[in-house]
Automatic annotation (TrEMBL):
Species of origin: Nicotiana tabacum
Keyword Signal applies: yes
Keywords: Signal
UniProt family annotation: Belongs to the GASA family.
Signal peptide bounds: 1-23
UniProt cross-references to InterPro entries, sorted A to Z: GASA (IPR003854)
Domain of life: Eukaryota
Protein name listed in UniProt: Gibberellin-regulated protein 11
Amino acid sequence: MAFQKAFAALLIASLVLVHFTHALQQGNNSKPPAPSPQAPKPLDCTGACEYRCSESSRPNLCNRACGSCCRTCHCVPPGTSGNYEACPCYFNLTTHNDTRKCP
């Protein structure tokens, strides 16, 4: 008789556990899927570099270097100088002499 009571209790506990596990799995699956990342809009390197180099003493050289950096990094820091924290890739590009490439 004791064996039958223990078996019945174990069976009921197992069914309750299965029920709660199934309910938790259903709750986790009800989240909507994450939106797919949007491709960034292509940067107008010509316009960004013309503004960046507008106060340069050598605008043609500046535009050529800036354009090369912009095509590599896909960004140009705002303003006519500085602000490199907005585009770390632009800041970290160097020439063969280990000098900064980007104006």
